[in-house]
């Protein structure tokens, strides 16, 4: 019997669609699912008439594969991944590959890669983005792990991935051990930020300008034809135009309590661990937490008043919409700049060799944050591969500088009328902090030294030389641990 090219475990919606995508591109796939009835339902349903091979045990799955065997897991992140790895290891041979395509934490992937490689096998943790449609017709794939595995999975991965205009696949090798899942985590964090920025723009259009849903639909549709052209802006326009059965906008019937799967929190947590000021994504995560306090907010709305004596509506509609577009774009640039700062910090900490322009290319198609804007990031790294921050690239510097007056007007107006814009405002604050040659942290260090003898450095002395002052005359010369600059 003809052997399969790859095995896939986990036949939920993503798994089934990825299998059909592989089949469409000429690869034979052996499938297995913990619930065996799902295997038969898939084989006799969506996979009927294809070359997909149904198997009913891990032993049967492994024996159906041609060597080196490639086994991909699309199961729930966490203990289920570890359980399947434990069961697969005795069945596989040195040189075989285990691939985790779920939303695993990158630290788990690093641990698993070390375990599997110690057994003589290869391990890949790959981000898969694009949802059900992407899995079926072309996702963005972000593989990392054992470098020796890449030539063996590359033909399959790049064949099934989304393609950009010139035919380049939205898939390339990211880096060693946990790099693939780290990049996917940052992708999801940026996705949080993009969605929060869009929500803030919607809130300002609705509450600030008083636009109805048809008018807001037209605004977002127009924005989607310019520099903001993206999947999320496009579907926002669609959502605003959608009507419920009674003809009313469905959007206003949806409870304003946001859910999450946790990858945004992971991104913010990684930034805190690595000392990266990922302010916008952190605010996007916190905004979801605030949204979940529906009962508390309803009570507070009856007791806490907003700004008094300020007109609640903005009258200069066309000018404000134009300003809001610029503010949204500048905030988006800042968010991606922060995301790339985090990836650079992780690459330095873990020794990953990361192609930053290639990541932008991987995100150009198939994934949720796909946009024309990502082509600009690719061009920035093509111009300067060692670019430390995309805000310093000539194109992005020019765009943010041009947007600055509008950006400030939008944030100031939002504050005046009491419409919360945590992501937009934090992006502007980050920009102002990043462009400041001197920040008030000198006072912060003086305060820390005053109450805790934590020491400080001086601008008129070499870096790495630490000082302590007896600020009151009552202290001594003993200091606490040296601060981390």
Describe the structure.
The structure is a single chain. This protein has an eight-stranded mixed beta sheet with strand order 3-2-1-4-5-6-7-8, sandwiched between helices. It is globular. Helix 11 crosses helix 12. The protein has 485 residues and is an alpha/beta fold. Helix 2 links the parallel strand 2 (29-32) and strand 3 (53-54). It has helices spanning 13-24, 36-44, 58-63, 79-88, 106-118, 131-137, 150-160, 179-208, 213-223, 231-241, 263-274, 279-291, 294-303, 317-350, 356-362, 373-383, 394-417, 422-434, 441-452; strands at 6-9, 29-32, 53-54, 70-73, 97-100, 122-129, 140-145, 175-176.
Major beta sheet summary = 8 strands, mixed
Structural class: alpha/beta
Mean pLDDT: 94
SSE series: EHEHEHEHEHEHEHEHHHHHHHHHHHH
Structure summary, number of beta strands: 8
Spatial strand order of the main sheet: 3-2-1-4-5-6-7-8
Number of helices: 19
Radius of gyration: 26 Å
- Gross morphology: globular
- Note the quaternary state here: single chain
How far from one another are the termini?
63 Å
User: Approximately how much beta-strand content do the residues carry?
Assistant: 5-15%
**Uncertain segments:** none
- Roughly how much helix do the residues carry, as a percent range? 40-55%
């Amino acid at each position: 019997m003809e052997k399969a090219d790859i095995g896939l475990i986990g036949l939920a919606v993503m798994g089934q669609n990825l299998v059909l995508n592989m089949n469409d591109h000429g690869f034979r796939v052996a499938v297995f699912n913990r619930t065996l009835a799902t295997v038969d339902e898939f084989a006799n349903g969506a996979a009927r008439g294809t070359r997909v091979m149904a198997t009913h045990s891990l032993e049967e799955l492994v024996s159906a594969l041609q060597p080196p065997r490639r086994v991909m897991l699309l199961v729930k992140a966490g203990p289920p991944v570890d359980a399947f790895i434990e069961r697969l290891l005795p069945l596989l041979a040195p040189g075989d590959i285990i691939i985790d395509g779920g939303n695993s934490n990158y630290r788990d992937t690093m641990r698993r890669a070390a375990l599997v490689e110690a057994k003589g096998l290869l391990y890949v943790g790959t981000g898969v983005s694009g949802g059900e449609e992407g899995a079926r017709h072309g996702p963005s794939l972000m593989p990392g792990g054992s470098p020796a595995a890449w030539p063996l999975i590359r033909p399959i991965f790049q064949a099934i991935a989304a393609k950009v205009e010139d035919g380049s696949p939205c898939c390339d090798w990211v880096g060693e051990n946990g790099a693939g899942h780290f990049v996917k985590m940052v992708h999801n964090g940026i996705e949080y930020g993009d969605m929060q920025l869009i929500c803030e723009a919607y809130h300002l259009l609705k509450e600030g300008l008083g636009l109805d849903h048809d008018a807001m639909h037209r605004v977002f549709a127009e924005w989607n034809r310019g520099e903001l052209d993206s999947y999320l802006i496009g579907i926002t326009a669609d959502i605003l135009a959608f009507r419920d059965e009674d003809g009313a906008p469905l959007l206003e019937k949806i409870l304003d309590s946001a859910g999450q799967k946790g990858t945004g929190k992971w991104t913010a947590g990684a930034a805190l661990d690595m000392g990266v000021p990922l302010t916008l994504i952190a605010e996007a995560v916190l905004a979801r937490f605030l949204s979940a306090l529906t009962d508390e907010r309803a009570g507070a709305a009856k007791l806490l008043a907003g700004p008094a004596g300020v007109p609640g509506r903005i009258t200069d509609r066309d000018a404000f919409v134009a300003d809001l577009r610029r503010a949204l774009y500048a905030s988006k640039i800042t968010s991606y700049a922060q995301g790339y700062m985090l990836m650079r910090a992780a690459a330095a900490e873990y020794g990953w060799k990361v192609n930053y322009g290639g990541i932008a290319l991987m995100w150009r198609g198939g994934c949720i944050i796909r946009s024309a804007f990502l082509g600009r990031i690719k061009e920035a790294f093509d111009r300067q591969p060692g670019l430390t921050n995309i805000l310093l690239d000539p194109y992005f510097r020019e765009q943010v500088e041009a947007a600055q007056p509008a950006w400030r007007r939008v944030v100031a107006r939002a504050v005046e009328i009491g419409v919360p814009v945590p992501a937009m405002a934090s992006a502007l604050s980050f920009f102002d902090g990043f462009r400041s040659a001197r920040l008030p942290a000198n006072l912060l260090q003086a305060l820390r030294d005053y109450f805790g003898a934590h020491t400080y450095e001086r601008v008129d002395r070499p870096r790495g030389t630490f000082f302590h002052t007896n600020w009151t005359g009552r202290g001594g010369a003993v200091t606490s641990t040296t601060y981390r600059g």
